[in-house]
């Protein structure tokens, strides 16, 4: 292929523009599809002939397909690529730089945790540079009901998971631990409503924590991110600001895991296991 003065192919710019337009078509269909040819032309403002040519290439390579009514929808090649992407994901690796940034911003300890039965398993941690800091380490566990990460994970768990936990005795770790099932059910509803959970010195004496959910490509809450600190350095009035920083980091991490936030305010994450199932009515007291 003839090259220009820079050594690049003369049609490289045109090819790149066509690629961008093609990707825009795929993105539109992923968000709003299936779509008709006229819908795609109207939405992109690209000439009809160009759209037709791009669609032909995308269909030929399995990126798009047409349904029985002639509308364009996502094709099987995207599933192949998607599985390859998901198979290479590691939430811990994806979170490392974000956790370091949170610790730099807050000068406090950041944790990443997942649910393991009725416990939180801490899979990553960035330590506060200050001498006094929370005791938990990577690989350690704590109860779900009295930790901020645990409350986030529990609030977005399936109803049977929540029901089973509420039916059993809730261990009192500190004087502030919520051990009444009805009170905990109300707390989980509040977590879902405000988007973050707090540990008001409920798990470890003198330690306050705030945590937010991390979602995967399907909208499932697969982990939670937290900032934890001695209560004398982390007054309650600072919780909203720390939560805001955590939510921004969790949004980035969730996007790295393939999550696409709802485009409109009325849209919600999928319901069901891991997506904010309503807490069941408490079955027993302690």
Automatic annotation (TrEMBL):
A GO term, aspect molecular function: DNA binding
One GO biological process term: negative regulation of DNA-templated transcription
Keyword presence, Transcription regulation: yes
Domain HTH iclR-type: 16-76
Pfam family, one: HTH_IclR
UniProt feature, compositional bias: Low complexity: 270-286
Keyword Nucleotide-binding set for record: no
Gene3D superfamilies per record: 3.30.450.40, Winged helix-like DNA-binding domain superfamily/Winged helix DNA-binding domain
UniProt entry keywords in alphabetical sequence: DNA-binding, Transcription, Transcription regulation
Protein name (record): Transcriptional regulator
Database matches in InterPro entries: GAF-like_dom_sf (IPR029016), HTH_MetabolicPath_Reg (IPR050707), Tscrpt_reg_IclR_C (IPR014757), Tscrpt_reg_IclR_N (IPR005471), WH-like_DNA-bd_sf (IPR036388), WH_DNA-bd_sf (IPR036390)
Naturally occurring in which organism (per UniProt): Actinomadura rubrobrunea
Signal peptide interval: none
Domain spans labelled IclR-ED: 77-259
Sequence segments annotated as region (Disordered): 258-286
